[in-house]
Prior knowledge:
Order of helices and strands: HHHHHEEHEEHH
Number of strands: 4
Helix content: 55-70%
Amino acid sequence: MARDFEALRARVRDVSYTPGTDALRRISPLLLTAQDLTATALVRLTALDNSAYTNIAGSRASLELLASVVSSSSLAGTDLAHALLANPYEGQQFAGYPADDEAVRTARHAEAILQMTGHLDDAAHQLDLSAIGCHYLAHGVTEDLSSEQEHQAAPAQHKQTTVPDLTRPQYDALTSFLGGARLYESSQRGLGVTRVATDDGARVSIATYRALAKHRMVAADTSTSLYHGQKIIVTEQGRRALAKPRPHAALTAAATTPPKVAVGQGVRR
């Protein structure tokens, strides 16, 4: 819409006319175009007001700005209408009134041109404000939507970049997967059994693999079947987990349980 307002402003500034019928013929299309732009701006204000955009921070300022565009565009139309009102029409006077001579006609035209020029300048100014408002509106809406997308993406990005703590078997499994590993499914007693085979011979339980896959630290290449073996890929999330120190081994129950002392042990009667 900004380009439409700018184009109309240029037409208003460049309009050339002779007072009378010629002015009516040249200024009337400008007035009709200004009214069409006002209607368009009003339709878009209504659509924006009824959209989900109103739930975004900063939307009120955009709505008020678009309302100002409607106002400025409407004022431009009013100024163009005032220019047509100031136009000296050449109809006949009432019966009994003398016809204008050339001097009176010239004076009427000179006075009208001053008034019409002022109204046309005012219309061009209002159209300039309308175009500027549209440019600011487009920038503001874009900024608001971008900020909202970043706000919505921030929790997901934080969740994605947060690496959960690994157990020692999970850490060792990831290390083995870097050297090469595959996911197989074989049939035992008529049931499909999924297992993990590593190139270095390390034993990794399917439960450990599934825990790593749940946290998106590993993925299987599904371009091949499980019966032929699907390559296990360590994801970027998994590599970030391996950047942490290897977890310490959990304390055993024997190490955490204090020794029992027999009551009365070593007491002689």
